[in-house]
UniProtKB/TrEMBL annotation:
CDD domains: IgC1_CH1_IgM, IgC1_CH2_Mu, IgC1_CH3_IgAGD_CH4_IgAEM. This is Ig mu chain C region membrane-bound form. It comes from the Eukaryota. SUPFAM superfamilies: Immunoglobulin. It comes from Acipenser ruthenus. Keywords: Disulfide bond, Immunoglobulin domain, Membrane, Transmembrane, Transmembrane helix. It holds the Pfam family C1-set. Residues 22-118, 128-223, 245-333, 346-448 form the Ig-like domain.
Amino acid sequence: MHFEYWGKDTTVTVISATPSPPTVFPLIASCGLSDATGPLTMGCLATDFLPTPVTFSWTDQSGKAISSDKYRQYPSVQNGGTYTSTSQLSISNAEWEKSEYFTCTVENASGKKHTQVNKPAVENTTPPHVFIIPPSSEELRANKTATIVCVARGFAPKDYTFKWFTDSKEFDASHYINTDAVEDKGYFDASSLLTVKEAEWKGSSMIKCELAHGRVTVSRNISSSAPDCSQCSATVDVHVEILPPTPEETLTQKGATLTCKATGLASQHNIKMAWSLPGGQELASGTPDITVVEGYITAVYEYKADLQKWASGNKFICTVTHDESLPSPKSIEYQRVIIKANEKSPAVFLLSPSPQETTSGHSEVTVTCYVKDFYPEDVYISWLHSDKTVASDRYTSTNLIPKKNENGASLFSVYSKLTVPLQSWTNGDVYTCMVHHETIQTLTKTITRNTDSAGACTAVSQDCSDYDSEEDDVGSLWTTASTFIFLFLASFFYSIGATFAKVK
C-alpha cells in the first residue's frame, strides 16, 4: 500500500473513478483507561472515499454534539483512486466515564457513515487465596512418599502457573500434577500436587509452592520441621507508605488527611489497619478500603489529623496486620519536617499567550502563572475567570522545580498553565491566578489583554506601574521561565512569547 501526501487543502481530481462514501472504523483509546488522569485520546478512520473533502463530527452517548475544539481532522491522503483521512478526539477522564460510547460521523458528497468508539470490556481480576497442605502421616508410613498440595481459590481470570522449589532449586514438572481449574460464578479454584520421596521431604530445609497470576506471584513455604499449615509462611512483598495531605486541603480547607497505603497483599480478606501516636495511643483502627487492579491488591486507610499537630511536626504511626501477607504487623512512621528558618514567600508572575500562539489559528491559548522561590514546598494554585472559579480540568501544574539558594537552603518553583478560549482572551476577559502558601494570605495576580492607542496588543495587570522599575529582573525571569515553559507546553509546539506582566 502506498500513500501520497498532497498537502493541506490540496484538491486532487481523479478521472474515471466512481464516487463512494467513506468506510469508517473506530480507533480505541490507548491502554490503561482505568488509570488515566489526563486527556484520553480516541480516533476515527475513514477510508476508500471519493470525492474530497470529507467532514468529521463527534457526539456522545446522548447524541450531544462535542465541541470542535476537542477534536482534530487531518488532511486526506490518496490511496490509489480513493482517499483516507482520520479524526482524533481528546476528552477528559470524567467525560469518558459519563458516556458508554462516542459516535464519529463522516460525510462527503457521496454519503454519510457512522461508527461507535466503545469502552473496552473490563475483565474481572481477582488474585488467588493460596495455602499449602502438608503430607499425611499415613502416606509417609505406608508409601514412604510425601504428597504436598498447593491450593489456589477464588481467582480470576483463569490464567495461572504453578511452580515448586526445594532449597531454591526448581522441581521438574514431572514431579507434580496440576488439576484443571474449576469455575464457580466467574471465579476459579485450582491445585497442584507435588510428590517426593520421604527422605527428600525430611531432608529438605524448605519446600516452596509458587503461583503466578497476572502481575502477582504468591509463595507458600513448608518444611518437615514445621508441617502444620498454620506455620506456613507467605513471602509476598508488601509495601506500606503514608501519603501526606494535599496542599489544597491544608491550605484551603484547614484539614490534614493522612493516607496509609499497603500494596502487594496476598488476599483481600482480614486486613486490619490502625493509626496511633508514639507510645501506643490508638487514634483510629478498622477495615481499609480495598482496590484490585490486574490482580494487584491495594489497601487504603485514612485518618484526619488535627491541622496544627500535623503542621508542627507531630509523629503519626500506621500499622498493617494481615496474617496471609505478613509474619507480624508492619508499622511505618510519618512526620512532617520543615526548617522554619528557611521559610520564604513566593514571588508570582503572570505570562500572557505568545504572539505566535494567538495567531496560530488554534481556538485556545495559554496563560501561565509562574510561582517562584518559595519554602516549604506545599503550594496550591487555582484560577478565576472574571471572578468566577475555573474548573480544575482547565489548568495543570508542573512538578515542583527545586533549587538551592546561596546559603544551600532549598527553594521551589512551579508553573500553572491555564487554557482559555482565544475569543475570551481577545475580548479582554480578566484572569486571576490565586496562590495559596502557608507563609502568606492568599495571593492573587490578575491579567487581561488590552489594545493600546497604536493598536498594539499588550497584557496588563492591576498594577503595571512596577514594570519599568523592575525591567532587569523581568528580563532575567523570562530567560528562566521560557526554558521551563517550553518543556511544559511542548504539546503545543510553541514557546511562550515575551509579553507578560508582573504584579504585586
